[in-house]
Prior knowledge:
By secondary structure, the chain is an alpha/beta fold. It contains 14 helices and 15 strands.
Amino acid sequence: MKLYNTKTRSKEDFIPLQEGQLKLYACGPTVYNYFHIGNARAFIIFDVVRRYFEYLGYEVSYVQNITDIDDKIIEQAISEHRDFHEIADKYATAFLEDCAMLGIKPPTHQPRATHVMPQIIALIDTLVQKGHAYEVDGDVYFDTASLPEYGSLSGKQIEDQMTGARVAENTQKKHPADFTLWKKSKPGEPVWQSPWGEGRPGWHTECVVMSQHYLGESFDIHGGGIDLVFPHHENENAQAMALTGKPLARYWMHNGFLNIEGEKMSKSLKNFFTARDILEEYDAEVIRFFFLSKHYRSPIDFTRELIEESGKALQNFYKALSSVDFLSLKRTEITLSEILDVEKGFRDAMDDDFNSAKAIALLFDLAHRIRDARQEQTHREEAALMLVKLGKVLGFFQNLQSRLQDNMHDLSKQLIDLILGYRKEARANKDWALSDRLRDDLLALGIVINDSPGGSTWELRN
């Protein structure tokens, strides 16, 4: 398996720190509002990473944090005239609900920042004692100049970082690139007691503590959106290096940006959509298909046309499975070499830096085989079993039984409407014998035809 490592800007062979085990950390939400559709891409991508390693037989420990104390949460609490705990709990609950809707498996551990406050304070104190952090009037900053490795993840050097969009001006800092570990609280803000007075932690420190608490000093993969490389992930890694001399993670994975109709998502452009907004319009599995139909590192353009195309493409899988009456299959084993070769191709695609787009193309190949009437029934059935097996690795087919039953119900309605069309044609030709025969045959199946001057309708007999 090869992974693209953001730190080295290259694909590398994946070698786990412990054979047969994967330790994975991916940044979760800051719970001050509903998460947006761009966040959904990251959450789905790392859900698939986790699922694929499990499919390979790895023992996976997946940690995803919930940041429940932050400037944005405090601002939202003020705007809603509520306690910050209420805001955090409200949107944390919504996050879990929306993830469930998207078919995202709960992580192994999902810590909240406020639940590890003693560990956060202890980590900051250690950095101060080691000379990598300093306190000024109740605020504590990380001294970037004290760490030669600073900038090794993002490629940014501290001498190049002047005050600007991502580097806030602060005259208390020794250098503009120094970042906050502990913030002195302002009146009315939530506080925790610390050696530097009342305050609260900085975002970058929270993630270091939560990841190391469950995964150890250094772990296999750290993931998130490309926008987190700097400053968030750079500053996480800097603290880990200062504490232990080891990088926080061996591999850093980042998914690409999401644009809306070719433009960056922005509230000012009125093209900002939460995942909850989109879930009200589109099926969750269609959204998952849309994201996975393109390589995770590539930018992706969100348009309703593409989403609708994803829905039609996904429906091909269900039509194929319906064509072999998948729910009634007695066969469970897959033995045909040509079907097993498809699985090998799927693994080759996913082993090449999680090329889900290529993997999905192989699912379409299976769907084509299933619907090919020239194929032997055994071949079609084994292709169907493989389609479901591999599709589930990508998080598809989570509600397979209900969806196939719905498909059969829709097909039944289409067939009845088709027969009514033939009957209408017979009546127009005054072929009353055929018209009556079609009516009686449908009635024998429990379908009642109601004729009226406006046309014919049908209903199921009680």
